[in-house]
Amino acid sequence: MEPIRNYVNEEVKNQPPIVDVPKRVKKRKKKKTWVPGLLLLTPILLFVFGFFIVPMLYILYLSFIVTDDVGATDAVYSFQNYIQFFTDSYYLSSLWITVKISLYTVGLCLFLAYPVALTMAKSSPRVRGYIALLIASPLLVSIVVRNFGWYLLLLPNGTINQLLIDLGLITAPLELLFSEIGVIIGLSNAYLPFMILAIATSLYNIDPSLEKASAILGASPLRNFFSVTLPLSLPGIVSGCVLVFSLSMSSYVTPALMGGANVPMMPVVAYDQINNLLRWTFGSAISYVLLATTLITVIAVTRGFELSKFKEVFR
Amino acid sequence: MKKIMSLCIVLLLLAMTACSPSAPKSNQASTSSKESNKQITIAGNGGKIEKVIREEIAPKFEAETGIKVNYLAGLSGEILSKLELQKNAPKIDIALFVPLDVYRANEKGLIDSVDETSVPNLKNLDSKYVAFENLTTPAFGLVIAPAYNTKTFEQNGIKPIESWNDLARADYKGKTAFADISNDWGFNTLYSLALANGGNEDNLEPGLKKAKELAGYSATFYKNSTQMMPALQQGAADVTVMGSYVTADLAVNSGVPLKMVVPKEGVYMNAFNAGLVKNTPNKEAAIKFINYLISEEAQKATADQGFYPVVQGISIPEKYEEVIGLKDTDKIYTFDIKKLAESRAEWTDRWSKEVTPQLGTLVKK
């Protein structure tokens, strides 16, 4: 129905106003709608400014200082920290590992989430509610506790390896723990609900008559899925991927617990620099490189989809 | 339906807040000027130390003095970075540090020293535990030493550990639990390996070389030392280097057949140190607590949790003797923490770049 409404709005806009409203009155009217909105937003704006923007700016400021001493009076400003990051293969490889693991996590989450979201969309509202509750329930358990659970499952002599050996599928235990695989498993487990709910929400919004229409026109169920359902759910897929990707990029607990020293993801490296070596300034620079990488990737992917042949879906 | 969905969303949001980086929950109470000196905040390791302070020391101290004790759990390094940020308005009155952090805290002007006039119990202190120029008060004694699972060693016919160099052996098939360099136990392992191979505070190079071999024979180095305990309990690791109080706890209270070894090159004896935070508004109460911490009563309570008492005339309980008891013939060393603290960052960097990539390369499947 959307295009018709747009069309009507367009018409109204293009017509000259029926009654000539004096300019002053118009202005006041505008003000009235604007002020209450801002008032409602004031608490969150203050909160975000005080507890997010200010600390982030402080960290940005720190990242340009060379000395390790916070609050030093003889601070020297330069790009030294960033230069050090980009000229040292250790930190570059850490960035690469972080991006790689995050991408794998997004892929695994997408693969696991889509069928669930589809099931939810096809179920009755009642069943849908129960599934949503089941999906969200693991989030009630702290991520630290869940990671310790995975740890016990994935140990070389843990449940999963033991089961696979007993079934005769493998002869020696798989290296599930302290490897990239372990971190990907842990992260996917943690962030799967975000992906499912994001996709499910966009699936709910698909007009069922579209699928009927396409079936009437002779599309097989498979064709129907790839030509109608999948493209229309793209906004959900993209927002789910963006969410999971950003969360994975910045996760600390899972890489530290499941990866040990073997998987030095960026948040772990930044934490070590700040908390163990007290190199606040270099740690801050690492954080900003991480933030920039996440932002650029997310914006590029989102813009890419918005400009693609599916751009209509994102309107 | 809508209700259930909205419930889910609320749950999600709750979980998101719970997932966010695990900043230790601060249970410090703000001390308003009116009731200052009525409560103090101590920051120290979670786990054993937190337990003994919360359950034993703090209640008795409060009963005696009326001063309430809040405990803020965190790693030594985390506490140090927190103090650095709170430099001008400290919210922590006493910080418990490992020796290397005592030096760093002093360098950054974050702690005040105490003396016998205000802390009379200092006169009973065993000088072995003093970290650095009497800046802080040692309170929880320990050695950082190897330990191994006696049962699996016997079953597999592995020779007991006698030297730090015995930690790098193919026999363990990668089933080791060593802490990463960022951890105090890990850094001490590097230093001890250096010492065992002809190095010293000025030159940890031989230690780094040996550590590469150690990494080769290990599946991982643990980023989080609390994970090492379940690894030993679950049989995922048979060999470790950790604080003696943890070995004692695992062996005596959790029934893991662990035994601590004092290698022939010796072990590093040290203590968690109580440092008086500079500019604290509760100085008087904090000093009282420090004095109580090294009283006979408090030291007996810490010994009961597996720490070595830092005052003369108290011994560890019988039950720990077999696992972590030290003999007179055992070689004990302390080191120049100034030199190590200053070179720590450099060695940490080199460890991450040279030693960590070797992890698991020599483990035979």
From TrEMBL, chain A:
Membrane topology term: Multi-pass membrane protein
Annotated TM spans: 33-61, 95-118, 130-153, 181-204, 225-248, 285-305
Stated family: Belongs to the binding-protein-dependent transport system permease family. CysTW subfamily.
Subcellular compartments: Cell membrane
Protein name per its UniProtKB record: ABC transporter permease
Record-level GO cellular component terms: plasma membrane
Major subcellular location class: membrane
Keyword terms: Cell membrane, Membrane, Transmembrane, Transmembrane helix, Transport
Pfam families registered for this protein in UniProt: BPD_transp_1
InterPro entries reported in the protein's UniProt record: MetI-like, MetI-like_sf
PANTHER family per record: ABC TRANSPORTER PERMEASE PROTEIN, INNER MEMBRANE ABC TRANSPORTER PERMEASE PROTEIN YDCU-RELATED-RELATED
Record flagged with keyword Membrane: yes
Source organism of the structure: Peribacillus asahii
Phylogenetic lineage: Bacteria, Bacillati, Bacillota, Bacilli, Bacillales
CDD domains to which the protein is assigned, alphabetical: TM_PBP2
One BP annotation, GO: transmembrane transport
PROSITE patterns the UniProt entry points to: ABC_TM1
UniProt entry tagged with the keyword Transport: yes
Domain named ABC transmembrane type-1: residues: 95-301
TrEMBL record, chain B:
Keyword terms, alphabetized: Signal
Entry GO CC: outer membrane-bounded periplasmic space
Pfam families: SBP_bac_8 (PF13416)
Record-linked InterPro entries: SBP, Sperm_putr-bd
GO molecular-function term, one example from the UniProt record: thiamine pyrophosphate binding
Top-level taxon of origin: Bacteria
Entry's Gene Ontology BP terms: polyamine transport; thiamine transport
Signal sequence, start to end: 1-20
The protein, known as: Extracellular solute-binding protein
Protein species of origin: Peribacillus asahii
